[in-house]
Amino acid sequence: MPLIPTFAQEVRLQIPIPGLNASIKACEGALCFGVAQYIVAIAKWLVGVISLLAVIFIMVGGIVWLTARGSQKQLGFAKKLIKDSFVGLGIAIGSYFILFMINPNLVNFAGFGVEKIEGIDFQLPEANPTDIQDGGDSNEKAKIPTNLSSNSIYCPKSGGAKEFEKIIKSFKGKVAYRFGGKGGSPPYKETNPDYMKYNTYCPPGNECFDCSGFVNIVFLCAGLQSPGGGTDDIFSGTEKIISWDVAKQTINDKELKPGDLIGYLKSETTHPAGHVLLYAGGGLFIQTTSSGGHPGRQPGANPKQSSMSHVPMKDYKHIKRL
């Protein structure tokens, strides 16, 4: 399974601080605090320690004064010790209250709250590295199917990449792979005789797409321009993939962003056609695949997700950034 970034709901302290629970809430609602609570507790603890030390030194100064027996040197030391202790006590307590009076947020660090970003979880079936076999796409232009609303597909035709998650989730279990499926009605463009029987129909309650058809429909439903008909069109003149970093989620030392497409052309593979994956954020690529032929063409077999670590990146030659 891909690793989805999440925020811990509780932080357990390795170094307890008086006045602060051994465990504190990292997040409350949409805000996360953790560090701020720790800083506030340390600040209050330091004020308490300084105040206690000041009182102790005042007492020591008083004892030195009482035992000075007229020694001007000891009396001077005692007076300075008491005076400096009162100054320190005044600064410790006074600074806290002055800051509180100016703005309470200066002492409770409410401004340290940061917005919690939830990890994306499409909860789609996992695509195996070999799922592309006997699949691919054709180069016809895509169009939004007329029956999306009847299948409860979310297609606002606006909103851009921020709508990808909701759009993709609405397709869960409602897509069957069809070579040449671009949103139109059958017959499709299947040329492999082993799968010709799928050419004439799309299962009830399903939408039928090939890999580029699905990518196109997601773009069009998000109000974005079509990236191109098929892989030859999509990746014409695009950036070549030279390097990638799974840990940093980068390609060619540049961070991936939702809407970026990676793929290869028919001429670059032993597969019957090219293939394209959509980066949807959260470290996940989304695709429709034939899954070796018949499996991907079954009702609800698509779309699928893959973490970058499960994508055979050496096979992917091009990236088209949104």
Structural write-up:
The chain has helices at 35-66, 72-102, 105-108, 164-170, 211-221, 231-234, and strands at residues 10-12, 23-25, 27-28, 31-32, 114-115, 175-177, 207-209, 239-240, 244-245, 250-251, 254-255, 261-264, 275-281, 284-287, 304-307, 318-320. The protein contains 6 helices and 16 strands. It is rod-shaped and about 115 Å long. Helix 1 (35-66) packs antiparallel against helix 2 (72-102). Mean pLDDT is 82; it is low at 1-9, 28-33 and 114-118. Helices cover 28% and strands 15% of the residues. It is of the alpha+beta class. A 6-stranded antiparallel sheet has the order 8-16-12-13-14-15. Strands 3-4-5 form a 3-stranded antiparallel sheet, with no helix packed on it. The protein has 2 domains: 10-115; 149-320, endopeptidase domain like (from Nostoc punctiforme) (endopeptidase fold (from Nostoc punctiforme), Alpha-Beta Complex), CATH 3.90.1720.10.
